[in-house]
Design goal:
The structure holds 2 protein chains of 2 kinds. By secondary structure, chain A is mostly helical. Chain A folds into 2 domains: 19-110, no CATH class; 143-363, Orthogonal Bundle (MetI-like fold). Helix content of chain A is 71%, strand content 0%. Chain A is built from 13 helices and no strands. In chain A, helix 3 (72-111) packs across helix 13, helix 5 packs across helix 12 and helix 10 packs antiparallel against helix 13. Chain A starts with 23 loop residues before the first helix and ends in a 7-residue tail after the last helix. Chain B has a single domain (52-306), classed as MetI-like fold (Orthogonal Bundle). In chain B, helix 2 runs antiparallel to helix 7 and helix 6 runs antiparallel to helix 7 (204-233). Classes of the chains: A mainly alpha, B mainly alpha.
């Protein structure tokens, strides 16, 4: 370029000429915020609109300035950066909004006395009407739903983990990429895509045909959840077993150890952290499933400790029924308070399981250093 | 471990081998049996609805007339979800893989996973209690100013419980799925391609346009297809958010229904032929999602065979 040959008149180096100064984004951001506030003041101020208008002004200003100083290529780059960062910020909005809504609405429900230790047995619309009209405390809680969720998830885990883990072992250790192994891999992929409600319908249809029409128990729900859980367990365990180094297996064989002992004593212990975290994530996935439980276990208002008999409540179906069919149709507020309390408990459960999975993976990861 | 003599442990070891490999094989076959069972039992339970006289099916005009509007409703909701979620998801994935500072990127990936972990019933409750209320003024505006478009024909729903709201909630739910899959594919772009583009003087966006996006295109398509599969089968968001009704073209009035929500709302109290009808509807949903997922998997495997990346 010729500009490098001519003496530089300004203080700025020739190398940084034709570039926006470093402070450019901040200047544009400040101007955008001020102008945005001014525009919003004309049509009625709200924070959400202010953010949107300022963001648009910021992008337009920065891209325009860049086009004037740096040329169209750099301006396009700036535009793309603005769009990408903007889409990230837009994606954050619902997450923050969901968590905020659950916290604000859920905390009053959660701290209501007896929320975690009482069921909905005997809680009728009369009490809810009293709570609204006379300010009596909102009674009734999620004890039965919590118990139901734990029982159903436990049974589903007891079914899915052996089946899933053994299938993964078959795929990695015995399958040799044969026809059956490929068929299993393919159908596990297909199972991953089964809509949760179809899994519930399957379990319902199966038990209707085998036990009798209208069979709805916790066990049916557990079977439905297993259909959703098994593919997740198979996929994650398979990945984990695959990355166990072959040298470990060969060393065991060389010592004369049988294949099953090699798998049990060498392969699985090496991969156990990954498998455990995969199983925990699978539990976190199914613990919040509503639709399959709704069509298989119905919903109950009292404690049911028998997985094999009678309708059973669970946290997600409790939330669903409390919102859709409030205990007192005239005064739905106490029901919605209980629903949000249950939602908060459910979200905490899922988050704890997710964090736990990460912690397990990190803590029990095999030492790779020498 | 016990100190058994070497010679006597051999028989036990051999039996152990047989038992263990047999158990593994059984577990594998059980999965195939379960999937076969899903199809079989759904078909068996659905047959009464398909063969029953038309007048006995809900609506009185046969199974086809019953299922047709809710299939369309399902497709409308899923389409809205994908139209909103796809560009944002690709943007977020690009942000995490190529724009965010290195130290921040893994943490952001975790936030996206967190978004995916929130149970669907909570998204549904959020959509019904918060989003529907907040968004109904926007629907009024759309009905007033863009009402000449059939999809925005007024009068707008006063509660905001419309198929468009349901679609927006669905888009929030499929966003993390598309994001995490595309992010993984963006990260697999050969580093040499990226560096070559940058060395030739390309800006970051030109580098992405020339090396990342062409490499990732099949992956993005399959990620979107998997998101579509999820959006089609999602139940709670629609059941809680949408106040359902007959099939309508307008997205901002109450009306329309999806298969999954129809099942969830009616199955608990259903009996007799109604159960069969709903199971048949579930079978239709199963076939649709199966088709979508298989196309997605097919794109992934075709991509694997032909790209030099693997």
């Amino acid at each position: 370029m010729s500009s490098t040959l001519t003496p530089v008149r300004s203080k700025r180096s020739a190398l940084t000429k034709g570039q926006l100064p470093k402070y450019a984004p901040y200047v544009v951001l400040g101007l955008a915020l001020i102008v945005g506030a001014a525009i919003l003041a004309l049509i009625g101020f709200n924070a959400f609109g202010w953010g949107i208008v300022s963001a648009i002004l910021f992008a337009a200003g920065l891209v325009g300035w860049s086009a004037a100083v740096e040329g169209s290529r750099k301006a396009k780059d700036k535009l793309a950066t603005c769009l990408v960062v903007g889409s990230f910020l837009i994606a954050l909005l619902p997450l923050i909004s969901v968590i905020w809504t659950v916290l604000v609405n859920g905390v009053p429900g959660l701290i209501a006395p007896g929320f975690l230790t009482s069921s909905m047995n005997g809680v009728t619309g009369v009490y809810d009407n009293k709570a609204v009209e006379e300010g009596a405390p909102v009674i009734g809680g999620i004890y039965h739903a919590l118990l139901g969720t734990i029982q159903i998830t436990l049974v589903a885990t007891l079914i899915s983990v052996p089946v899933g883990l053994l299938s993964a072992i078959y795929l990695v250790e015995y399958g040799h990429d044969g026809r059956l192994a490929r068929a299993i891999t393919f159908f596990v992929d297909v199972m991953t895509g089964i809509p949760s409600i179809v899994a519930g319908l399957f379990a319902a249809a199966f038990f209707f045909a085998v036990v009798g029409p209208g069979t709805k128990t916790g066990a049916v729900a557990a079977v439905a959840l297993s259909v959703l859980m098994i593919p997740v367990v198979v996929r994650s365990s398979e990945e984990m077993l695959k990355i166990v180094p072959n040298e470990l297996r060969e060393a065991a064989y060389a010592l004369g150890v049988r294949k099953w002992r090699t798998i049990l004593k060498v392969v699985i212990p090496t991969a156990i952290s990954g498998i455990a975290s995969g199983v925990t994530l699978a539990i976190a996935r199914v613990i919040g499933e509503t639709a399959p439980i709704l069509v298989t276990a119905g919903f109950a208002t009292s404690i049911n400790n028998n997985v094999f008999g009678g309708w059973m409540a669970s946290l997600p179906t409790f939330i669903y029924t409390q919102i859709l069919n409030p205990t007192s149709p005239a005064n739905p507020d106490p029901s919605s308070q209980r629903a949000w309390g249950a939602a908060l408990v459910l979200i905490i459960l899922v988050m704890v399981l997710n964090l736990g999975a990460r912690l397990v993976a990190r803590t029990f990861a095999p030492k790779t250093g020498r | 471990m016990t100190a058994t003599p070497l010679t006597s442990s051999q028989g036990a070891g051999r039996a152990g081998d047989k038992i263990f490999s047999g158990a593994a094989l059984t577990a594998g076959c059980l999965i195939l049996a379960v999937l076969f069972g899903v199809a079989l039992f759904l078909v068996v339970q659905a047959i009464p609805a398909l063969t029953a006289p038309a007048a006995e099916i809900q609506g009185g005009e046969g199974f086809f007339a019953y299922i047709w509007p809710i299939v369309i409703g399902t497709l409308i909701a899923a389409t809205i979800a994908l139209v909103i979620a796809t560009p944002i998801a690709i943007g977020v994935a690009l942000f995490i893989s190529h724009f965010a500072p290195r130290g921040l990127a893994s943490g952001l990936g975790y936030v996206v996973d967190l978004l995916a972990a929130i149970p669907s019933v909570i998204y549904g409750a959020w959509g019904a209690a918060f989003l529907a209320k907040e968004i109904s003024p926007a629907y009024n505006w759309l009905a007033e100013n863009m009402g000449w478009l059939p999809i925005f024909q007024g009068p707008a729903s006063a509660t905001g419980k419309t198929i468009l709201t349901a679609g927006i909630v669905l888009s929030v739910m499929v966003l993390p799925i598309i994001t995490s899959l595309s992010r993984e594919i963006f990260l697999q772009t050969p580093k040499l391609h990226e560096e070559a583009a940058l060395a030739l003087g390309a800006t970051r966006w030109e580098m992405i346009k020339m090396s990342v996006l062409p490499f990732a295109r099949p992956g993005i398509i399959s990620a979107v297809m998997l998101g579509l599969g999820r959006a089609l089968g999602e139940t709670m968001a629609v059941a809680l958010v949408l106040s359902s009704g007959a099939l309508t073209a307008s997205l901002i009035t109450s009306g329309n229904q999806t298969i999954a929500a129809e099942i969830a709302l009616n199955f608990p109290e259903a009996s007799g032929l109604k159960v069969s009808t709903l199971i048949a509807a579930g079978l239709v949903l199963f076939v649709i999602t199966l088709g979508v997922n298989m196309i997605a998997r097919w794109i992934i495997t075709r991509h694997k065979e032909f790209s030099g990346a693997n």
